Amino acid sequence: MITSFLKNFLSNTKEKMPIILRILALFVEDLFVFVGFVFIVKATFMWSETAGIYSIGIVLILVGLLLSRKPSSKRR
């Protein structure tokens, strides 16, 4: 009973999914990476201000590297 409900739900989800959720589904991994970086930087600033500034620098370098390896289709 539950498995048939889940199969039905998953098969009909694509047609019923609002446009906002479709857009968010495209960027969900980037959103998780961004939120993870925010938590890491916040925790580092709580530990020490100097270490927090270093962590922001490292995060910005990593984001720059990620964006350079995976360029958006709009830029090309």
Could you characterize what this model shows?
With 76 residues, the protein is mostly helical. The protein has a domain at 25-70. The chain has four helices and no strands. The protein has helices at 2-16, 19-26, 28-47, 49-69. The longest helix is centred in the last third of the chain and has 21 residues, at 49-69. The mean pLDDT is 78. The chain crosses the membrane at residues 20-45, 51-68. Keywords: Membrane, Transmembrane, Transmembrane helix. InterPro entries: DUF1056 (IPR009406).
What is this structure, in a nutshell?
With 76 residues, the chain is mostly helical. It has helices spanning 2-16, 19-26, 28-47, 49-69. The protein has a domain at 25-70.
Q: In one word, what is the shape?
A: elongated
Instruction: Give the DSSP E fraction (strand runs of 2 or more residues).
Output: under 5%
Mean pLDDT: 78
Computed structural class: mainly alpha
Number of helices: 4
The helix fraction, in percent, is over 70%
**Can you summarize the main beta sheet?**
none
Radius of gyration: 19 Å
**Tally of DSSP β-strands:** 0
Distance from first to last alpha carbon: 49 Å
The topology string of helices and strands comes to HHHH
Low-pLDDT sequence parts: none
Topology:
Blueprint: H1 2-16, H2 19-26, H3 28-47, H4 49-69
Helix pairs in contact: 3-4
Summary tags:
mainly alpha; single chain; 76 residues; 0% strand
